Amino acid sequence: MHVYRGLRDRHRHPGGIVRMTTHDEELIERANAADRTPVVFVHGLWLLPSSWDRWADHFEQAGYAPVSLSWPDDPDTVEEANRHPEVLAGKTVGQVADHLAALIGGLKRRPAIIGHSFGGLLTQILAGRGLSAASVAIDPAPFRGVLPLPVSSLRAAAPVLTNPANRNRAVPLTFDQFRYSFANAVSDEEARQLYETFAVPAPGAPLFQAATANLNPWTEAKVDTENPERGPLLIISGEKDHTVPWALSNASYKRQRRNPGITEIIEMKDRGHALTIDQGWQEVADTALTFVRRFV
After folding, report:
1. Where would I find the AB hydrolase-1 domain in this sequence (predicted)?
2. Fewer CB within 10 A of the terminal residue: the chain, N end or C end?
3. Rounded to the nearest 5°, which phi and psi values hold at 40?
4. How far is it, in rounded angstroms, from Cα 157 to Cα 205?
5. Are 244 and 139 in contact (CB under 8 A)?
């Protein structure tokens, strides 16, 4: 797999070329130049790589080389994403996974990978391809074989799934929708601050893929849970998460524990889906850091 270095050219082409942003290029080059293990951060829907900025600083201070990778066509800022949501539309789980795998292939060392929500699903996909030295999936979106259908998850996904045309669109959340699906465990004041700081439109396709994964044998929303090269995996679940409640995280854990590698799960008390970006983010980061330190 070849990597072409360009600012806005970063689509997968038939020749197998993946194009990266300057953001990705600089982080990968910096990680390769450092004598440190890389830690790759993967965001989920309705967020951008900048949602990991505090985590990146925290892990760098702990001795790692942070790499918060973009999804294909991620704008540089929240403001840009909200002005031009069309650039986010049409991304599928498989396209994003292949894009991230190619970028990770540019690292000299096998990284730890940490992902949130759909980033947690992508983390498990990448680990299942043997690309991770250790992985942390935080409130991960479900994959094929994860069977529960919690009512709160259906309500959180409703802004996208109630309109089939949203499969090919980038869909924003209203504040009330964000409050329910992300920020239900924080104050109204903090929820508004999180919404204004972090929320961007998200491609609808991944939600449709996850919703139909158990009906589609060819789905891209699937994980190789049995690969012995998967490496150690920790799943973190927020106790009050509406979008990915314990039932989903625990079902993912039960599928993953079939792997010969170490598989663990932990529940963070009184935390919602915004646990990686709200004022309690460092407790979650330290939980992930403690796990990563055990192995890399």
Report:
1. 39-286
2. N
3. -90, 130
4. 12
5. yes
